[in-house]
């Protein structure tokens, strides 16, 4: 169904939505971002409708259910799945002692699930488009529940890592499918409010895991966390079974197994190579072998996608300015945003010599401004153009990195607070509109794979940003400590500047 913009200067195109977004869809995935968004969007100008009536101009897939009831059910399940990714991040020493494993081997408790989510997101998105997002979402939620129970029963380090990775792999299905389910409940001009909550949940889940994981493990032991989580996930799965509506399935369309396999090879090589280059060294044979898989996998993927009748990701999307530009901007935004995030606590600890509790307190402006800017950007979606909003956001992010580079030798509190606030404002303003551009550039039937593709590119940007900027800082330690951070932040500023240029190219 086509939802043309009232201000569009181009005639509507068949079987696709108008490229000018009227929504602000804040999107993220577990492991891509760590910020939470306060749901101010529902407090400003909410328009009430009778339950079960759906929305005029929507996709008509409410199944007689209240769109907001469906939204809340989806969000509860997505939150519990997202929180499992990072809940053991700060408790590795205690777990290692309990299982008789080495702390170093348990690094895969976080790296493994993060890579698994990146590798399987496109699979889940495409399967949802083909076979129904309700079915895929329920499979993901059920699988996550099973592996949470198995995690609580883990008897060794390898078994714990295996259950965590497998749980993240099947649980990744809830991300693209939850996004597609919510998209189908509302017409484009009203999606931003519901998807603002979606952004809150997917971003807040990992934060919740990081914040409560350590204290809960120390108080009750790490197994108790999962015994507590399992019944909550099971109850949510049952609730979802009765509430979620069916979504259309595509007949006579087959899943592109060859394309997914080739893409998985390229991504696995890239993500594992990046992740292990810092720990093992860039010239380590295993790291070099991982990187060698990237061009081979990409070459095979392109060849496969060009000849199969039903490609996993239509390559023509990347020739479409309305799709390719916001996806590319998202890569550069995540590079600078997450690269700057990983360095800020280290800078304050090493150069200023601040204790951990003080560093945590000084980081508050970043999530706070993100929480305010995101909903405001959603509320302003029909008042300010996507180009202006994205340019403003990417400029703020770039300015944040420039400030850090300039004050790295003497990071005064005021300068750090300003830089962190600019970072939060920047990502909060830019990210929703970028995702709206992607969602409105593809047919409704492809919302799952389009969202998964954007998440995938953002995940690569995140991984590269954190590892490249940290590697630059470590490699520059021959200079004064502050100088090494200044160099790393300068690299981040250059890459974020590419996002500014891309934002200026967004079509109105």
Tags for this model:
single chain; 508 residues; mainly alpha; Growth Hormone, Chain: A; 69% helix
Notes on the structure:
The chain contains 17 helices and no strands. The protein is mainly α and 508 residues long. The protein has three domains: 181 residues, MFS general substrate transporter like domains (Growth Hormone, Chain: A, Up-down Bundle); 56 residues; 193 residues, Growth Hormone, Chain: A. Helix 4 runs antiparallel to helix 6 and helix 4 packs antiparallel against helix 8. The radius of gyration is 22 Å and the shape is globular.
Give the secondary structure arrangement, pairings included:
Blueprint: H1 67-83, H2 92-99, H3 108-131, H4 133-152, H5 157-171, H6 174-185, H7 188-220, H8 222-243, H9 257-280, H10 285-307, H11 321-350, H12 356-362, H13 365-379, H14 386-407, H15 413-439, H16 447-475, H17 481-504
The protein's oligomeric status is single chain
Instruction: Give the amount of beta strand, in percent.
Output: under 5%
Q: Please report the total strand number as a whole number.
A: 0
**CATH hierarchy class name of the largest domain:** Mainly Alpha
Q: What is the succession of H and E elements?
A: HHHHHHHHHHHHHHHHH
Structural class: mainly alpha
* Biggest sheet architecture: none
Apparent shape: globular
If you consult CATH, what is the topology of the largest domain?
Growth Hormone, Chain: A
What is the number of helical segments per DSSP (H or I, 4+ residues)?
17
CATH homolog superfamily of the largest domain: MFS general substrate transporter like domains
The helicity comes to 55-70%
CA-CA gap between termini:
21 Å
Estimated radius of gyration: 22 Å
Tally of structural domains: 3
Mean pLDDT: 77
Q: Are there runs of 5+ residues with pLDDT below 50, and where?
A: 1-60
CATH architecture of the largest domain: Up-down Bundle
């Amino acid at each position: 169904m086509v939802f043309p913009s009232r201000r569009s200067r181009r005639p509507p195109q068949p079987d696709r939505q108008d490229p000018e977004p009227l929504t602000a869809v804040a999107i993220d995935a577990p492991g891509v971002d760590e910020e939470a968004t306060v749901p101010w969007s529902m407090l400003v100008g909410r328009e009430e409708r009778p339950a079960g009536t759906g929305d005029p101009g929507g996709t008509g897939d409410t199944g007689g259910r209240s769109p907001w009831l469906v939204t809340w059910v989806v969000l509860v399940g997505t939150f519990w799945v997202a929180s499992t990714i990072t809940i053991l991040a700060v408790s590795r020493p205690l777990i290692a002692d309990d299982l008789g494993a080495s702390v170093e081997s348990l690094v895969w408790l976080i790296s493994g699930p993060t890579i698994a989510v990146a590798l399987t997101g496109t699979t889940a998105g495409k399967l949802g488009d083909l076979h129904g997002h309700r079915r895929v979402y329920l499979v993901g939620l059920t699988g996550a529940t099973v592996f949470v129970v198995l995690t609580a029963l883990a008897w060794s380090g390898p078994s714990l890592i295996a259950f965590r990775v497998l749980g993240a792999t099947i649980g990744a299905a809830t991300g693209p499918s939850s996004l597609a389910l919510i998209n189908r409940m509302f017409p484009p001009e009203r999606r931003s409010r519901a998807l603002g909550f979606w952004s809150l949940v997917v971003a807040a889940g990992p934060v919740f895991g990081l914040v409560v994981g350590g204290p809960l493990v120390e108080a009750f032991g790490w197994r108790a966390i999962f015994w507590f989580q399992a019944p909550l996930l099971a109850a949510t799965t049952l609730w979802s079974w009765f509430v979620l509506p069916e979504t259309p399935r595509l007949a006579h369309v087959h899943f592109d197994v060859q394309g997914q396999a080739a893409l998985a090879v390229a991504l696995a090589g890239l993500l594992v190579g990046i992740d292990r280059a810092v720990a093992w060294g860039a010239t380590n044979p295993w790291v070099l072998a991982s990187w060698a898989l990237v061009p081979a996998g990409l070459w095979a993927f392109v060849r496969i996608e060009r000849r199969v009748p039903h490609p996993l990701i239509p390559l023509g999307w990347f020739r479409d300015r309305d799709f390719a530009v916001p996806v590319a901007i998202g890569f550069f935004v995540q590079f600078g945003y997450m690269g700057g995030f990983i360095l800020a606590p280290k800078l304050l600890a090493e150069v200023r010599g601040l204790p951990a509790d003080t560093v945590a307190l000084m980081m508050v402006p970043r999530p706070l401004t993100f929480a305010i800017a995101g909903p405001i950007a959603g509320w302003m979606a029909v008042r300010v153009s996507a180009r202006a909003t994205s340019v403003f956001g990417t400029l703020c992010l770039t300015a944040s990195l420039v400030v850090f580079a300039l004050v790295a030798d003497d990071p005064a509190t005021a300068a750090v607070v300003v830089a962190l606030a600019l970072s939060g404002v920047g990502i909060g303003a830019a990210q929703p509109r970028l995702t709206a551009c992607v969602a409105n550039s593809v047919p409704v039937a492809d919302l799952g794979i389009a969202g998964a593709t954007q998440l995938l590119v953002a995940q690569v940007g995140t991984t590269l940003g954190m590892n490249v900027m940290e590697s630059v800082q470590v490699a520059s330690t021959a200079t004064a400590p502050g100088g090494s951070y200044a160099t790393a932040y300068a690299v981040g500023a250059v890459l974020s500047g590419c996002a500014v240029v891309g934002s200026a190219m967004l079509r109105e």
